[in-house]
Amino acid sequence: MHKQSLFLVLLTLLISCSSKEQNPSRKNAEKTITVDCFVVSKEDFSNYINTVGTLKANEEVELKSPVNGIVQKINFIEGKNISKGQLLIQIDTRDLQSKMNFSVIKVNNLKKEYERKKELYKIKGISLEELEKSETDIANETALIEQYKVQIDYSDIKAPFSGKIGLREISPGAYLLVGDRITKLVNLNPIKVEFSLPAEFVNEISVNSNVQVISKSLDDTVLARIYAIDPSIDISTRNIRLKAEVNNSKGKFIPGDFVEIKINLSKNKSSLFVPAQAIVPNISEQTVFVVKNGIARETVVQIGKRDKKNVQILSGLDLNDTILVTGLVNIRNNTPVNINQIINK
Questions:
Q1: What is the pLDDT, as a whole number, of residue 288?
Q2: Is residue 275 located within the same domain as residue 330?
Q3: 47, 197, 304, 329: which has the fewest Cβ within 10 Å?
Q4: How far apart are CA 73 and CA 318, in angstroms?
Q5: For residue 110, how many other CB atoms are within 10 A of its CB?
């Protein structure tokens, strides 16, 4: 009997101690956490995509000698603006002119010879073959005269379009061969921007759309108009090439410069948005914590477009729901919370 009483006393003490150990744990579970919240709002959302591009001249050409000859005169100043059709280089044509004059005389003599042979042919003095050869000789020499005329015309090298002339690589008196480089000519207004986008965005852009061009070297941002979209996708990169143009009347943009491109693909009106830090990513879903009656409850959401700060909510939240934006590391489902402040995005 004494042993039974002792056992009951020990059992009572054990239950009492266990109860005391559990109380702090229960208190912990019910501990209220102070948090900042955000009220879900509805607004327009600009869906931007960023890429990089390169500035290209509106027109650009390397001027090369179209004929062999000696540079007689240089009629431009390096780095200056010139007009379309302006005479840039004169190549000595005296040798060509002499050859052409010789051919002209030769043709006249061949024509006289042909008339004489025509009379001989009538009286069977020569064969038809000899007469036809005379005709061929006249035609060949006449073609040579035309060739000399073209070469003489090419010897006056003119600007194919208006623009800025580059540095010259020749001097007066230099002997040029066909294809020798003379200088470069560029037209800089408007200046073109060439860039690429992933093929998935091909249906969200169109000709005449505006894009932002950000030049780090100039610390400047301007608008450019898309004027051309490649009709095919590059099979190696799965990107599509685009070209836009920028007004460059002040000449501050230079071809070859690297720029950033920012494109507003579309606007999704009347959408719900929350700060990006409110989203809690899980393995297979995205969640937020909605506060109702002082309790934070985990809620699964479907997200849409996003940028660096905001995320579009497609489903799972209602307008004016209150969600947590701080304290998310310590929050569990059904945790009591105390709202410190409602923040704006």
A1: 94
A2: yes
A3: 329
A4: 79
A5: 20
